[in-house]
Design brief:
Length: about 190
């Protein structure tokens, strides 16, 4: 507010022998005000995205803080172009109800910053194909251990499945039952 009053005063002195000097000052002040407002707008936009996320997932303050602390890059994402569509796609793909979606995002907020179509959807499809999971089983696995969506299927999940299957001498059906019952086994080291 004080900056604006100062700028108005300087701009009113524009006439007279110092017109060129005041014109340069006016340009600098205009640029400064623009940049200041842009930074302020960016901060407001970030907190607006967080507020929209809080509303969309019906979160209290503590879970929202947990999401932001675990994945601060959420604050750099636009709700309309990143977060909202990711939530909708994830919910539709796994047929999650609101409580399940909330649980998944609180446990794995980095999912909000990933490109769903390039990262998450292919990982889910590969996991479902490899273990021959139906939709309900895939949903159960991801709700129990949402971090699996952040793992590379080729580098992490598939080698873990292979090692687990060989180590315990499991059939495909047995491997499926083990993973559905306890998806966290895929995060264990089998060296």
């Amino acid at each position: 507010d004080q900056l604006k009053r100062c700028a108005i005063r300087i701009l009113s002195l524009e006439s007279g022998p110092h017109k060129l000097l005041f014109s340069k000052v006016r340009i600098r002040i205009s640029v400064y005000i623009y940049l200041h407002n842009f930074k302020l707008f960016a901060q407001v936009e970030r907190w607006t995205a967080a507020a929209k996320l809080q509303t969309r997932l019906q979160l209290s303050e503590a879970p929202l803080q947990r999401i932001i602390v675990r994945c601060p890059t959420v604050l750099t994402c636009s709700f309309e172009s990143n977060i909202g569509p990711s939530l909708a796609r994830l919910q539709a793909r796994l047929q999650l109800n609101e409580a399940q979606l909330q649980k998944v995002i609180i446990r794995c907020p980095t999912m909000l910053t990933c490109n769903f179509d390039l990262n998450t959807r292919p990982s889910l499809a590969r996991l479902q194909t490899r273990l021959q999971l139906n939709e309900a089983q895939l949903q159960k696995v991801i709700v129990k251990n949402p971090q699996l969506t952040n793992c590379s299927f080729e580098s992490n999940i598939d080698p873990s499945l292979t090692k687990l299957q060989l180590r315990l001498q499991l059939s495909e059906a047995q491997l499926q039952k083990v993973v559905v019952a306890c998806p966290s086994v895929l995060t264990f080291s089998f060296e």
